[in-house]
């Protein structure tokens, strides 16, 4: 839901040059700038008069963990990313003008990890243990209008280990300051549904909760205007002279829209509702809600349907971190991830295992992704000693209700998940908790099905299933049971919540090696050095003992109509959970795309299966010892066959037979040029070449965008490739690349995708990993130019210019 309070044009000049004056009449303002930060616990830091002049100045979103150094002794352990956690403070001084007196001033945090307490002028406003939930406080009780006020936030992420993945630490999402009239749309106060949809018309039902701090019985006029995707007014409804009760009153409105443009994954048409509240004919509030018109269902025998048409959910799981940026949310970084997934053919996302930044859901609405929005990774039974199980009893109802209230207008969301692989699955207490959680969700949103990611496929043993509360059964892994699910769970609807958990590193193929070992399936023996025979189809055979090769599980889900789809574990590598490797491994190996955003080979497997785009991808690289036997794999689509040539000599034509997802040639290595040609009806569709590379000779820089916004937030992702003198990628190059940046931008992060790199994500240098690394460039708030130079000993340097506007 993009529910924003429209910003008034009313401008007030700062009373004090260095202190922001905020809180303009009826507004929602970004409150990210001008914070001060101190790492460590600081006594009295909540007090208004505390002297924070020595503290570091920064803008939010901010994650202090990502700035730290990896250490095996960090209490989050390498499962949590091996970065420091701890306690820290944020403070901000601001003025709300005297002219706003009588208004309600509210602060909203999209997410603080974790266990935050917020004070205004030394008075506690409240605590929020959950690090992934959005929350709001009313500042009025302790606010001084027209004077300096101090907001102080203590963040306590010191209790560790608290997470099975990297959480990040700090105020890592946006903060907003709202000024509202005493009568206004309440927090997350709209709920828009479209109960009847046909080609000719759609019924739009709008429930608006109006908060009334004036006096019980006060009246207001409420108007909702609907704008179509092009911004044209297509409907309007008025509720005149509405009598408002004590605090919150729900107003129901309904209207019809002709010829609705439906939201779907290819054409994600979005409508807007603008709610205006009038008092004595004066506008006292405006509130925008973005929504979509679409209908969907899960069928037990035939899977998922969007707007009446069957659609397999081709999804991935992602955690919330953004690689080198850590947990600090950035819209462009998230958008880039979704762009890459979309190009792979992905149409669905599971927000493992927590509610995401609200802007991620806005992106899913805009870009056409179907979302499973998930609340928890544990209930009362722990997964880590200090995790959320300690807060579950007190906070879970509030947390899950807030997730639903915040997110229920997003057309992208098609499933709520009450939890991932919850331990109570195996315990009778799971029955009551599941019923309660589903009840809380359904009271706020009766329109969407509720699921939980389960692992137990024996019905009698699965207590969450036994609760009878779930609408859709989501099973993680266990692909061998999928065919039999309709027999075991008659009449139920199914999806796979996690698949694969296969280990890969981008561009690294040698076996045995640190990164490609076989993980024994009994789960008891430690993983061992793997298959020493490099030829044994090595590229997709290393996976968690509970998982499977990517191809195996996709072949199962693809063929079973009752499986509505799948969410691969995982779309991107993420910080933490470097199964099964010990420190210094500190980020996961499961991604289809690495942490830096470079696709691994399996990306092209999914692309060949999930899109109609002509595709041809061959691998591995072509730098081996003479005489070594090498398997060459190809993924292709929109073609009948592929022919492979080595130094101009044909190695034969192959085509996928039966269940095959890739084709393979086993050949003795000879240096030179490996070329693949795909053909359809005898005509060439695509050709690809890989050449044996010589020594590293030069650096190549490529920016994903050479013009970015000068808003201080936009990013350009600059990929570095180490090339030989003829322009071939040197596949094992690990040269140290140094960055020098000038002008109106800065380096927000560097990475190379290597899961055990101990280099800092914030350093102005990075070693190449298998020939590649990345610099993330962020704009400053100034139009101009950024010049990035990359140098490395013995290599020809390169510079690139990015414009900011
Ligand atoms: C699953 C779990 C995920 C992740 C994955 C790794 O069991 O739900 O969070 O840990 O395993 O294979």
Automatic annotation (TrEMBL):
**Keyword list, A-Z:** Glycosidase, Hydrolase
- Locate the Glycoside hydrolase family 2 catalytic domain: which residues? 304-457
Q: Where is the Glycoside hydrolase family 2 immunoglobulin-like beta-sandwich domain?
A: 192-294
Checking InterPro entries in the record gives: Beta-gal/glucu_dom_sf (IPR036156), DUF4982 (IPR032311), Galactose-bd-like_sf (IPR008979), GalB-like (IPR048229), GH (IPR017853), GH2_Domain-Containing (IPR051913), Glyco_hydro2_dom5 (IPR040605), Glyco_hydro_2 (IPR006101)
One Pfam family for this entry, by name?
Glyco_hydro_2_C
> Where does the record place the Glycosyl hydrolases family 2 sugar binding domain?
31-179
Instruction: Report the residue ranges that make up the Glycoside hydrolase family domain in this protein.
Output: 699-801
Q: List each copy of the DUF4982 domain by range.
A: 627-685
Q: Does the keyword Hydrolase apply?
A: yes
Q: Which domain of life is it from?
A: Bacteria
Show which residues constitute the signal peptide: none
Checking NCBIfam families in the record gives: GalB
Family note: Belongs to the glycosyl hydrolase 2 family.
Q: Which PANTHER family match?
A: BETA-GALACTOSIDASE, BETA-MANNOSIDASE
What name is this protein filed under?
Beta-galactosidase GalB
* Native species: Paradesertivirga mongoliensis
The lineage is: Bacteria, Pseudomonadati, Bacteroidota, Sphingobacteriia, Sphingobacteriales
